[in-house]
Amino acid sequence: MRLKYFLMALLLAVIPATCALSGNAAEKSDSTMSKWAKLASRFHVGGYGEAVYSRNFYSDRYQRYTDPQSAANDKSHGRFDLPHVVIYLGFDFGKGWSMGSEIEFEHGGTESAVEIEAEESGEYEKEIERGGEVFLEQFWIQKVFMPQLVLRAGMQVVPVGATNAHHEPDQFFGVYRPEGENTIMPCTWHEVAISLMGKAGNWSYQAMFLPGLDSERFGNQSWIHDGSASPFEFKIANNYAFAARVDYKPVKNLRLSVSGYVGNSFRNTLYDTSSPKLKGVKGTVSIGSFDFAYNDKRFIARGFFDYGHLSDAGAISKFNISMSKNSTSKRQSVASDAIACGVEAGYDILSLIPAQKSKGHRLYPFARYDYYNSMYKMETGSGLGWCSKQKLSAGINWYPIKQIMVKAEYTHRFFKKPYNNEPSINIGIAYSGWFF
After folding, report:
1. What tens digit of pLDDT does each residue of 294-314 get?
2. Burial 341-374 (b: 16+ CB within 10 A, else e)
């Protein structure tokens, strides 16, 4: 009997203690989960990607501009492509400090391998099995002092022009990015830079200090497009540049923006530029841009106008053409002035159907017009007629859900005689958004 009472007393003592321990463990588990949840909320993962099929109803010979008559009756050709696949990674460290990064795979990335060729006496041979590019497009650390003042340093996008500032696939209608800006300027233009930015009311701004472009890499078809790239493991910064952007929202759903760039580009190379004939050559690149966007979900309209000037274009052309074939120069003449403009508009016809609108489906028939000329004005000599292009596009953008879009379009690129016009059909699917 005494044993019975002893066991009952022990049980009554153990049960509350066990419950207390269980409660403490639960509290600790809840605390751990809460810490992980807070940590996870500071980690950001997202991105965008595009897969495209094109059928081009014109010649794919590289001589189609130098010998247009012989290419007039060439057959059409098709292409599959992954223009961009991008992964965003970011983290909020707290107290106003954060980082952001962006890894981009263009056209499927690259695949290279070293193989031993049995039929070539066992020699080692390097092969490129797939073209494309893989690069770190952004990596920056920033400090937020207040909404009106943010300091950012590192690899970041230069916010000049509409496409550089808004290049995700849900921010333009066409299957490919707007052609004009993608031709005459780097796109997406990214540099290791220091910038100040902020927002106040309906205004926002960004001012950037960055390395200058390299005039050695300028060309006739692309103007300064390739001047931001570097074939070396570092970016030459003998010259510096400044870029700025201001956005204003005067009324709901409307954004008006101006942006610009100025910086010298000559002597931003490893090649000797000490010749007395080159004294005073600076190669100052100046770009002014205006763009706008109106978006009330049903009706969307966007447009831009860019104008660029390169000083000493004649001297730079002569210098580049005289360079060695082994250099990284295009060895081409470059224009003193280039121009690009474009406008697009679309309307969500599913917004007229209440059942579809409630499901979040959107379908935009759209039209787009582009004009651009990478040799708009020449300092010396004459430009190339095929560098002046007009392009009309029409198609649809369908959003089955917010982050997924299916695109299809017919485009027609127009040239002056004797060059042949270039019609094509493009179909693509894309995503854009945050995963976490």
Report:
1. 999 999 999 999 999 999 999
2. bbbbbbebebbeeeeeeeeebbbbebebebbbbb
